[in-house]
Design goal:
This protein has 332 residues and is α+β, with helices and mostly antiparallel strands. The chain has a domain at 177-238. Helices cover 37% and strands 22% of the residues. The protein contains ten helices and eleven strands. It has helices at 8-17, 24-29, 40-49, 55-61, 134-147, 164-172, 241-251, 253-264, 275-299, 303-320, and strands at 71-80, 91-95, 100-113, 118-125, 154-157, 177-181, 186-188, 194-196, 207-211, 215-223, 229-234. Strands 1, 2, 3, 4, 5, 6, 9, 10 and 11 form a nine-stranded mixed β-sheet that branches. The protein has a two-stranded antiparallel sheet with strand order 7-8. A hairpin with a 5-residue loop joins β10 and β11 (229-234). α1 crosses α9 (275-299), α3 crosses α9 (275-299) and α4 (55-61) packs parallel to α9. Residues 55-187 form the Transposase IS701-like DDE domain.
Length: 332
């Protein structure tokens, strides 16, 4: 068997450096001038050769987290594929970026954060053909995090994942959860009968109510600019409104993370058609982000600044010896 010419590290370094194009052909074009450099097929074979496995990401992320502490945040994001007609895994999903249903690949992520670090620890790619729902993936990642001996301060997630099964699963792990609840979620206040949250007197500082099928929870009613009320709930009955605010702010870390992986790793730009290649590209892009995160935290710079610095060096090299000009024109 012949020895492969490229390995995961080579593709990861390419994703870190390339400003836009993320194809095997482009990866081959930018290879250093060495004898017998890898052709584009070598990169394509890499993406189909590897076995997609989120545990590879964890092997690198484990050294970056404190398992006893921090906050675990779970949410999904749509990787835009507006022109994909023959790419597997691409279906229609809601996009918070576009505020509409768009074509793309849905990525469910588990992020560890302490307010400063953004460390992806696990992920799942939603596939309508495998019979697994996003809530199934949620449960898988929670159980995996528990097996990895995480002891987070709290698990924070969107209301989409606030099913009773998910809430009970986190409670069974011995963890605190904080999530959004819809205004029509039924609760029971002071044994007056179940009614929707919107019809229940909920204080901004928190009100204890009975959540049918679960038990006592504390709900915070937060006024929002459009005149409505957002409801946050937790199983920590001693949680204060200040602690709730801090943890809710932590939940935004995953939105910054989603922006970072899209802007800096080319996670949306793989043109391969097979599901296996797409899964491997996503996994390698997340490993590239881990390197960005470690580099930026150590040097106190943003992800975008670190990416721009690479491009800036290329621009500086060109300006040293510019070669694009009018024919037969030496200087201007």
């Amino acid at each position: 068997m012949s020895v492969p010419k490229v390995f995961p590290r080579d593709y990861i370094e390419f994703l870190i450096a390339t400003p836009k194009a993320c194809s095997g052909a482009e990866a081959a074009r930018v290879q250093p001038a060495v004898p017998d450099p890898p052709a584009h097929d070598a990169f394509t074979r890499l993406l189909t050769r590897l076995e997609p496995d989120p545990s590879t990401l964890w092997a690198e992320a484990a050294t970056q987290v404190r398992r006893a502490g921090g906050v675990l945040v779970i949410d999904d994001s749509t990787l835009d594929k507006p022109y994909a007609k023959a790419i597997e895994l691409v279906t229609r999903h809601w996009s918070g970026k576009h505020h509409a249903v768009v074509q793309g690949i849905n990525l469910v992520s588990l992020l560890w954060t302490d307010g400063d670090r953004h460390i992806p620890c696990d992920y799942r790619v939603y596939d309508t053909g495998d019979g697994r729902t996003k809530n199934d993936h949620f449960g898988d990642m929670i159980r995996t995090a528990y097996a990895r001996r995480f002891k987070p301060r709290c698990v924070v997630f969107d209301g989409w994942y606030s099913s009773l099964d998910n809430l009970k699963l986190i409670r069974d792990c011995g963890w605190t959860w904080l999530t959004r609840l819809k205004s029509n979620r039924l609760v029971n206040l002071d044994r007056r009968g179940t009614r929707a949250l919107a019809d229940t007197a909920i204080a901004a500082t928190g009100t204890e109510v009975w959540l049918p099928g679960f038990g006592l929870v504390k709900v915070f009613g937060i006024a929002i600019p459009n005149g409505g009320t957002a409801y946050w709930a937790t199983n920590d009955l001693a949680m204060t409104d200040l602690a709730r605010l801090q943890l809710a702010d932590f939940s935004w870390a995953i939105e910054n993370y989603h922006r970072g992986i899209k802007q800096c790793t080319g996670i949306e730009r793989c043109q391969c058609r097979t599901a296996r290649a797409q899964r491997n590209h996503i996994g390698l892009a997340l490993r590239a982000f881990l390197r960005f995160e470690a580099h930026c935290f150590a040097r106190g710079v943003s992800w975008v600044e670190a990416k721009t610095a690479i491009i800036r060096d290329a621009v500086r090299s060109y300006l040293t010896r510019p070669h694009i000009c009018f024919p037969n024109m030496r200087t201007a």
